[in-house]
Amino acid sequence: MQDDEELEELVRENCACLRARMAARKLTRIYDKALKPTGLRITQFTLLIAVKDGRAKSVSALADLLAMERTTLLRNLKVLEEAGLVSSEPSGEGRALSLKLTASGKTRLHEALPHWQAAQRAVEAELGDDWPVAKSSLEQIIRGV
Fold first, then answer.
1. pTM here?
2. pLDDT for residue 140
3. Containing H/E element for 87?
4. Residue 1 pLDDT > 70, yes or no?
5. What is the pLDDT of residues 52-72, one digit of tens each?
6. Higher pLDDT, 2 or 11
7. SS3 content of the chain, % helix, strand, coil (to 5)
8. How far apart (Å, rounded) are the C-alpha atoms in residues 43 and 28?
9. Helix or strand holding residue 64 (H, E)
10. Which of the ends of the chain has fewer CB neighbours closer than 10 A, N or C?
11. How far apart are CA 41 and CA 35, in angstroms?
């Protein structure tokens, strides 16, 4: 059996969650910096993309699609609604809400796309030939290890 110090070192060197969270924070900073001229953060940008896509027919379905906690999603959607970028209305199916981009939301998303693309290109360039493998590994985690 390993002692605590050995296990702590194992965590520092090998914890998948620690590495993923560190990478996520670094990536978030890269995309947030690129999107700053648009007034959007990457979390807001990806929500606009997901709402425009329209596949998720409710807030719960959108939370599932994005692997987010429903309460976190609602908090982020509220910011977008208050900014006039997203609108919600009852879907007619119980308490479910239907989400749509407003005209302002579509405009802001259109303005943000080239900024996102610049960040994406920078990340892909940094990873080089490792990008397809990294993307595949991330997809595997998303689908369920």
1. 0.88
2. 93
3. strand 86-90
4. no
5. 998 888 888 899 999 999 999
6. 11
7. 75, 5, 20
8. 8
9. helix 59-66
10. N
11. 6
